[in-house]
Amino acid sequence: RPDEPDEDLAARLWPLEAWAATARALLAHVARAGRPADRFTALAAVVRHLLADPVLPAPLLPGHWPGPELRAAYTGYQRELTEEMLGHAGR
């Protein structure tokens, strides 16, 4: 077992600050994307980025970790698409 604190070890093993910065930039991009194609592209980048989330327990993450917010943005988009498709199917 390493002699360093768990938080320091996690920060050394994963680029947590860089991941968080990219996640925040993606959230801002999603918020700005108005056209459907732009939103689709932004959310595709979100999915790619979520694949690199280390999914660590909260005590090992830096403050204001954007992972849950990024997942919520994607889940909301999925829900929106599903509702739109179901609405079109009923016509």
What does this structure look like?
It contains four helices and no strands. By secondary structure, it is mainly α. It has one domain: Methane Monooxygenase Hydroxylase, Chain G, domain 1, CATH 1.20.58.1460. Helix 2 (16-32) runs antiparallel to helix 3 and helix 2 (16-32) runs parallel beside helix 4 (67-89). The longest helix is centred in the last third of the chain and has 23 residues, at 67-89. It is elongated, with a radius of gyration of 17 Å.
Determine the number of helices (DSSP H or I, runs of at least 4 residues). Answer: 4
Q: Which shape, going by the Cα principal axes?
A: elongated
CATH class: Mainly Alpha
CATH architecture: Up-down Bundle
Taking the sheet with the most strands, its summary is: none
pLDDT averaged over residues: 92
CATH topology: Methane Monooxygenase Hydroxylase, Chain G, domain 1
Question: Approximately how much helix is present in the residues?
Answer: 55-70%
Computed Rg: 17 Å
Number of strands: 0
Order of helices and strands: HHHH
What is the percentage of strand-forming residues?
A: under 5%
